[in-house]
Amino acid sequence: MTPVELQRKGWKALVNALGYVDAIRFIRQFDSGSGDYTKERHQWLDKLTMDEIIADIEQRQGNEMKEDE
Predict the structure, then answer these.
(1) Taking the model in full, what pTM does it have?
(2) What single-letter DSSP state applies at residue 48?
(3) Any residues with CB less than 8 A from the CB of 1 and at least 6 apart, and which?
(4) What is the CB neighbour count within 10 angstroms for residue 69?
(5) Torsion, CA 18, CA 22, CA 27, CA 32, rounded to 10
(6) DSSP 31
(7) 3-class SS at 34?
(8) Rounded-to-integer distance, Cα 17 and Cα 38, Å
(9) CA angle, 27 as apex, 3 and 16 as ends, to 5°?
(10) What distance separates the 2 farthest-apart alpha carbons in the chain?
(11) What is the pLDDT of residues 10-56, one digit of tens each?
(12) Helix, strand, or coil (residue 7)
C-alpha cells in the first residue's frame, strides 16, 4: 500500500467511525501549528484599512463565483 493509499484509507476509517467533525477534531490534536498567530496577524492586519479588507473579500468572492461556472 502506498503512503497516499494508507492516508486515504485511514481518513475514511476515521470518518466512518467518528464522522467528519470528530475526525477533524481528532487529527487536530496532533498538530498545534507553529509560531505566534496573534502577533503575526497584527503584523499584516494592522496595515490594512477596513475598506481594503472588504474590497479583498469582495474580490475573492467574485473569483470563487467565476471558478464555479
Answers:
(1) 0.44
(2) S
(3) 9
(4) 4
(5) -160
(6) -
(7) coil
(8) 34
(9) 80
(10) 51
(11) 999 999 999 999 999 999 888 777 888 889 989 988 999 999 999 99
(12) helix
